[in-house]
Amino acid sequence: MESRIVKIGDVRIGGGNKPVIQSMCSTDTEDVQATICQINELTKEGCEIIRVTVPTVKAAKAISKIKKAIKIPLIADIHYSPDLAILALENGADKIRINPGNIGGRDKLTRIIISAKKHKAAIRIGVNEGSLESDLLKKYGSHSPKALVLSAKRWIKFFENESFRNLVVSVKSSDVRTTIEANRMLKNCGYPLHIGVTEAGTKESGTIKSAIGIGTLLAEGVGDTIRISLSTDPIEEVSVAKKILDALDIIKLPLRVIACPTCGRNKSDVWGLAEKLERDFEPKKPLTVAVLGCGVNVVGESKAADYAIVGVNGDKFTLFKKDKPIIRMASYNQILSYLKKQI
Q: What does the pLDDT read at residue 1?
């Protein structure tokens, strides 16, 4: 069942639209110039919606200045304070992310809803394991998909009773299986789902956990917007998100590199060449290039790719177009120059 469509600024999520890439600034929101700079860098990388933390009045008021200098919708991340949520909305936040369980009571949520209606903004109900209601924790314990889903449904019903349906919903855990199962259970709730493995970890371990959790859900058609939570520069979050979407053919990156892991037959620097190709080459149209250590798989892999580069010896390679060799015993620079002229 497709969800309703929710507009975040000029971005439409849900209703069968392509999953949207989000990230979150690591800057102090009160530092307007630093925040603008980071958002614009993330936008260039492919971020489509950005979230900033709003822990102070000054941060909430900074939203109006930040909005004027960026090109993508802005989400205000709010905890504990309904007053900051309302102030963020008054200063132009396209959406606010709240955890209803820590906002201070239903009367305060009602105040936020009134303001969101007035400013035609969306709200994300963010349910995390770390802030589940005490009755659900007591009954189901930790790492319980059911507890996360029951909490989300509890709050969805509250918002619907307040005649507010401009909602996005998320249920997140740092545990991959819990995240997957909770989102599977919630997929027919009628609202767009924001998916991610929260506090996933470092660049390497967090990427693996996110790829498994988010990739599994997206492959099953679950998820309308994604955020990769990594303990590193948020640019890496966007890069990983794009690669997950590309691997599932949801989007097409300019360059897709297929590279063999190599074995004892390899006599060339396949690893280095593959990394340099990803770094140096950005074709004008989607292109798949296979980088191989020997000729064992060249026919099959070169047919699956637009081009195949096969190691011959040392720094010499043969370039295939489909399964036909077109340059023999060439250096990396010669092959790169040829590819850039053709694309």
A: 66
Does any domain span residue 1?
A: no
- CA–CA dist 169, 155 (Å, integer): 10
State residue 189's pLDDT score.
92
Predicted local distance difference test score (pLDDT) of residue 42? 97
CATH no. for residue 274? 3.30.413.10
The model's pTM is: 0.89
Q: Which residues pair with 227 in a beta bridge?
A: 22
Q: Are residues 180 and 271 in the same domain?
A: no
Kindly state whether residues 84 and 198 are assigned to the same domain: yes
Where residue 124 sits, what CATH number does that domain have?
A: 3.20.20.20
In this structure, the answer to whether residues 187 and 43 fall within a common structural domain is yes
Average pLDDT for consecutive 10-residue bins of the chain (343 residues)? 89 95 96 97 96 96 97 94 95 94 85 96 90 83 89 94 95 93 94 90 90 96 95 93 95 85 70 83 86 68 78 81 83 86 79
Spatial contact of 329 and 309, defined as CB atoms under 8 Å apart: no
Written in H, E and C, the secondary structure of the chain is CCCCCEEECCEEECCCCCCEEEEECCCCCCCHHHHHHHHHHHHHHCCCEEEEECCCHHHHHHHHHHHHCCCCCEEEEECCCHHHHHHHHHCCCCEEEECHHHCCCHHHHHHHHHHHHHCCCEEEEEEEHHHCCHHHHHHHCCCCHHHHHHHHHHHHHHHHHCCCCCEEEEEECCCHHHHHHHHHHHCCCCCCEEECCCCCECHHHHHHHHHHHHHHHHHCCCCCEEECCECCCHHHHHHHHHHHHHHCCCCCCCEEEEECCCCCCCCECHHHHHHHHHHHCCCCCCEEEEEECCCCCHHHHHHHCCEEEEEEEECEEEEEECCEEEEEEECHHHHHHHHHHHC
| CA distances, 77 to each of 59, 125, 240 (Å) | 11, 11, 22
Same domain, yes or no, for 222 and 293? no
* Predicted pLDDT of residue 301: 63
